[in-house]
């Protein structure tokens, strides 16, 4: 919802080809310009096991694991990794990156209208790489592995934010906090560079793809993770939602039985609505993110 540098929007033919990946909930029906996030959903069983593991670590670790969760705010160091092709495409400016960082800080501090989470973001550095293969790297590709292995900086608490143009069509993807210990080099967030503030991927060009993917990185699921179910996204104050919402469908309510009251959380950063529609995290998401990031990232 940060709107400082909303420039004239070029009309861009956005080819969002379907990604055939059975692990990926984002195999929902797609059409041009529908948000796609390739962050994989765990199955219900996997999600439950992850919750158990997190509880066990939190209980066992006490302050060692949860020290960060007690702090009022914590600053996340952010490394941007800008990938361009040999034609120069993808070459976002330092000002564009600063705008993206501002969008994150506005969103996570509640300035756009949601919860004031504990997370603040500071620029730690930028790398710039010309590489046609990495420029087109999609989720789960060998190119993704090579790119991240070569460029990643810092530790579990460091946010590595890659920008490129995934040939597979997704706007972005991220890794969860609990994945760090087994795959530290894969850790981070990837966003199509055209989703940055002022980019050409209207209506996803206000930087909230970054906000959404960083949401996964601090431990949040999609608001529709478990559909109409008790656990859903493991956050009590986001109403259950059966499937992703696109556009900005006010009043949408896909879980209609009485145990799931309230309309869909279309205004939540972890749904699939347009950037101009999503503006908030909830207090429950702020608490969950603090706990997961405290446990697995030491944040
Ligand atoms: Zn997502």
Summarize the structure.
With 299 residues, the chain is of the alpha/beta class.
Secondary structure blueprint with pairings:
Blueprint: H1 44-61, H2 63-70, E1 74-84, H3 94-108, E2 119-130, H4 132-135, H5 142-151, E3 159-164, E4 172-174, E5 189-192, H6 208-217, H7 283-297
Parallel strand pairs: 1-2, 1-3, 3-5
Antiparallel strand pairs: 4-5
Helix pairs in contact: 1-7, 2-7, 3-6
Bound molecules: zinc ion.
What is the quaternary state of this protein? single chain
Ranges where pLDDT stays below 50 over 5 or more residues in a row are: 2-31, 63-69
Order of helices and strands: HHEHEHHEEEHH
Number of strands: 5
Instruction: Name the shape in a single word.
Output: globular
Summed up, the helix count is 7
The chain-level mean pLDDT equals 86
Gap between N and C termini, in Å? 25 Å
Q: What small molecules accompany the polymer chains?
A: zinc ion
Radius of gyration, taken over Cα atoms and rounded to an integer in Å: 18 Å
Strand order of the largest sheet: 2-1-3-5-4
Task: Indicate the structural class.
Answer: alpha/beta
Residues in helix, %: 25-40%
Fraction in beta strands: 5-15%
Main sheet, how many strands, which sense, barrel? 5 strands, mixed
Which keywords apply here?
12% strand; five-stranded mixed sheet; 7 helices; 27% helix; 299 residues
